Amino acid sequence: xxxxxxxxxxxxxxxxxxxxxxxxxxxxxxxxxxxxxxxxxxxxxxxxxxxxxxxxxxxxxxxxxxxxxxxxxxxxxxxxxxxxxxxxxxxxxxxxxxxxxxxxxxxxxxxxxxxxxxxxxxxxxxxxxxxxxxxxxxxxxxxxxxxxxxxxxxxxxxxxxxxxxxxxxxxxxxxxxxxxxxxxxxxxxxxxxxxxxxxxxxxxxxxxxxxxxxxxxxxxxxxxxxxxxxxxxxxxxxxxxxxxxxxxxxxxxxxxxxxxxxxxxxxxxxxxxxxxxxxxxxxxxxxxxxxxxxxxxxxxxxxxxxxxxxxxxxxxxxxxxxxxxxxxxxxxxxxxxxxxxxxxxxxxxxxxxxxxxxxxxxxxxxxx
Length: 368
What we know:
Helix content: under 10%
Largest sheet: 5 strands, mixed
Distance between the termini: 22 Å
């Protein structure tokens, strides 16, 4: 998800978010986003005394971090964060999955829920977006555009389900791409155009990773096939920039290289380009106002985190090594002006971040 402004706060918020993982679900990493002159971070916490909760904190343009607040608490079962967004006007959207306690041997099903907070207001009542039959894997994905367009997608019975919301409106079921079976990522442009990435229809098995586009106010077209194998959460991601430029990261097959497919504003996804001959672990991607694509990834099962970028119509630069450590949970924040920050965790060694100025290389990593 691209970050339109307030880039000076990226490091502060990422440190806050990743520090929270000490008490968060291991399969629910925090997600960050921004809008206007403030930034917001949310994460899932699981505590033995009072169940699990979704927590949120904000920071101002001056750099101060506000007190964390509880968005929702689950007395039983488990809450898993799906997405958080902030529009340019200051509206905040938080999406999560609620996993009620299941009888022993019961299927892992969930309910997809959302909460909205108007500019300057408080979070309203929880909105239920799905039935109890939502699949547990892969988790739901969500995105919020600068003007307030929101979309949530989840899998149920091998098919994608979508709930969409226009700026200032209410969520309603929306037509889903007919040939996607598992959602893995979503992006929203400034004007409300959507990109939804995932595996194509599961009948009964999932086909290769692909992405479908929906113009603002329109319907999804057929999914472009972007990879040669099934997608994986955290590895296969998609991002859309403010203007509608998009990028999807996936893995190849024989060899299992890291691949990137780019899409110019108003166009179609081009054939995937090889980013790294090694197989990717977890990845992050972002697209700037000018259409530059920035990607960060770890290698699996080898060590190292790398980053690369490419302007529209140009090839990707040679991968820049950010660390030689065995890393996990790579995250990437990319601002509209091109400033970016990559973050990752190293087992038993904490969390590290590396930043870059617009158009420059990443600097050395620092522990947070």
